[in-house]
């Protein structure tokens, strides 16, 4: 049910084609730490995150979505805080996320939460740089 709702709203919420990032894999295989926030049965936000198999384990935030009508109310911070707590409980020693260069709102958000931000050339393949966020726990 959450999957169906998220796929229906993500492109509208993100302002672009993002539904390909919402793969059923995140619900059925990697969804143990993912979060959904609702208010009066209305989808308000979601966070897709999982723990990597790297040693030491890393909590990776793949995707965050907030209903535009509920932005700037602390919902993203709330979900990141809960995800961080859950990752600590599983033994993670750091968190990681990424975005495309020029996404200043994502960069400001992550920096406000204590993440470092580094531009990594070719991170997503040749000629595809990404801003990689990292935070030690």
Please outline the helices and strands.
Layout: H1 2-14, H2 25-28, E1 35-39, E2 42-51, E3 58-66, H3 75-89, E4 94-99, H4 104-112, E5 116-120, E6 130-136
Parallel strand pairs: 3-4
Antiparallel strand pairs: 1-2, 2-3, 4-6, 5-6
Task: Walk me through this protein's architecture.
With 137 residues, the protein is α+β, with helices and mostly antiparallel strands. Helix content is 30%, strand content 31%. It contains four helices and six strands. Strands 1-2-3-4-6-5 form a six-stranded mixed β-sheet. Strand 1 (35-39) and strand 2 form a beta hairpin. The protein is globular, with a radius of gyration of 15 Å. The model has no long low-confidence stretch (mean pLDDT 89).
Low-confidence stretches: none
Binned strand content: 25-35%
Distance between the termini: 33 Å
Mean pLDDT across all amino acids: 89
Helical residue percent band: 25-40%
As an assembly, this protein is single chain
Q: Please report the total strand number as a whole number.
A: 6
Write down the overall geometry: globular
Radius of gyration: 15 Å
Widest beta sheet: strand line-up:
1-2-3-4-6-5
């Amino acid at each position: 049910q959450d999957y169906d709702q998220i796929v229906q709203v993500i492109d509208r919420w993100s302002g672009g084609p993002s539904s390909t990032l919402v793969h059923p894999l995140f619900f059925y295989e990697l969804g143990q730490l993912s979060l959904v926030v609702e208010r009066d049965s209305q989808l308000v936000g979601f966070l897709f995150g999982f723990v990597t198999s790297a040693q030491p384990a890393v909590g990776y935030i793949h995707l965050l979505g907030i209903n535009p009508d509920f932005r700037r109310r602390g919902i993203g911070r709330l979900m990141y805080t809960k995800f961080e707590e859950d990752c600590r409980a599983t033994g993670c020693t750091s968190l990681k996320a990424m975005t495309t260069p020029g996404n200043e709102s994502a960069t400001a958000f992550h920096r406000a939460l204590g993440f470092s931000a580094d531009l990594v050339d070719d991170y997503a393949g040749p000629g595809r740089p990404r801003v990689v966020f990292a935070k030690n726990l």
